[in-house]
Design goal:
39% of the residues lie in helices and 0% in strands. The protein has 103 residues and is an all-alpha fold. It is extended and about 45 Å long.
Length: 103
């Protein structure tokens, strides 16, 4: 099943897809224009985070990503509307403000 998901992700994105543990990364230097892992990095133990980030940094190309970027900043009010329109009921939420920004 994992192989099918990886093949599908690569086919849909048109990009190489790598599935590895952050604790055992094996990435060639300058092999990626970008790395999408922000939600996953939340789960890296803090005592190894700097080393993981250093390996990811080494794997990035200097010119970076030049294509389109898609994302959803998930502001609560807009997300709540979308969730409700999709049939969800928001029972509780927590908004973690950015450091240095007022809410």
């Amino acid at each position: 099943m994992k192989a099918l998901r990886l093949a599908t992700a690569q086919q849909v994105s048109g990009c190489p897809v790598v599935h590895q543990s952050f604790l055992n990364l094996s990435l060639a230097p300058a092999s990626f224009h970008g790395i999408f892992a922000n939600a996953s990095l939340f789960h890296v133990p803090s005592q190894v985070l700097t080393g993981v980030l250093a390996k990811l940094h080494c794997a990035l190309r200097e010119e970076g990503w030049q294509g389109e970027r898609y994302g959803n900043d998930m502001e609560f009010e807009q997300s709540e509307t979308s969730l409700q329109q999709a049939g969800f009921e928001v029972l509780h939420h927590y908004y973690r403000p950015l450091v240095g920004h007022s809410v």
